[in-house]
Amino acid sequence: MFQILCESLKEKNEKYNIIIPWYIMTSRENNNETIKFFEENNYFNYPKDYIKFFVQGELPMINTEGKIILDEKGFVKLAADGHGGIFEALFKNNIINDMKEKKVEWIFVGPIDNPLIKMIDEIFIGITVEKNVLVSGKSLVKANPNEKVGVFCKKNGRPSVIEYTEISEELANQKDKKGNLLYGESHINCNMFNIKGLEIIGNKKLPYHTAFKKANYLSENGEIIKPEKPNCYKFESFIFDSFNQMEEMAIVRVNREEEFAPVKNKTGIDSAETAKELYEKYMQNKDNLKENENGL
């Protein structure tokens, strides 16, 4: 995944004769492994000084009785605080200052689990600037009412997203006069922020959401318990909860086959296997298009 994203950045660097800074948020659990991976691969021949790693925050996990659980070493068990933790982490790790020093004005924020992600999308940037907003997001038409994606909406007159775990079945199935899903614009976590927007958001706390997870823990008797099903709650903030800090945002609808191949599951739908298949199909179509253009 990192190599695929890196190659796309290098392509844009060459096209525009610049070096685009790349900031990678890791967690405490994978930070060292991620850095080691880049070192072993010579940073995929990307200028090392333009890649910065920073670690997101963590929050305690609790059991179904509301008590904080301990990890295998007897310490409070912590879990990463969600992709919404990026704002606080940007400030705590002085990333915002580094951006300012490099005169960065627009920041694309996206996930690592999508090989079709376009980190540099000139049309996306252009629409965001033209709309005179501080934040924008990409959307695609929801495949069906039960697809596990958040959807764009407005709450109290401000842009927002309803997470798929929190939308009611009634709202998920509601349709407009044309027969389209009323809440059918999926948020695929591809976002553009002006640095001024990040400064506004970074000074405010985002709400926490709960997720019921399976996690090993140390019992009161000193035994390490390895449950077979979810047993505790983790708390996380979501990046889209920052949208309502803005009066307006731009939303750009994109084609699913060109920009969405998520890896969410080990097998089946949205797995590494399906993402690989979608990525290879996209690259083949891209190569065919280039051949046709050259032929013309």
Can you tell me about this structure?
The protein contains 9 helices and 15 strands. The chain is globular. It is an alpha+beta fold and 296 residues long. It has helices at residues 2-16, 31-40, 86-92, 95-101, 122-130, 169-173, 195-202, 256-259, 272-295, and strands spanning 22-26, 51-55, 58-60, 62-63, 78-80, 106-109, 135-141, 150-155, 158-162, 185-194, 209-213, 217-218, 224-225, 232-236, 250-253. The chain has a domain at 56-262: Spore Coat Polysaccharide Biosynthesis Protein SpsA, Chain A, CATH 3.90.550.10. The two termini are 33 Å apart. Strands 6, 7, 8, 9, 10 and 15 form a 6-stranded mixed beta sheet that branches. It has a 3-stranded antiparallel beta sheet with strand order 4-14-11, with no helix packed on it.
Shape: globular
Biggest sheet, in brief? 6 strands, mixed
Order of helices and strands: HEHEEEEHHEHEEEHEHEEEEEHH
Structural class: alpha+beta
CATH superfamily of the domain at 56-262: Spore Coat Polysaccharide Biosynthesis Protein SpsA, Chain A
Query: How far is the first residue's CA from the last residue's CA?
Result: 33 Å
CATH class of the domain at 56-262: Alpha Beta
CATH topology of the domain at 56-262: Spore Coat Polysaccharide Biosynthesis Protein SpsA, Chain A
Radius of gyration: 21 Å
Q: Care to count the β-strands?
A: 15
Runs with pLDDT <50, length 5+?
none
Strand content: 15-25%
Approximately how much helix is present in the residues?
25-40%
- Return the CATH architecture of the domain at 56-262: Alpha-Beta Complex
Number of contiguous helices? 9
Overall mean pLDDT score? 93
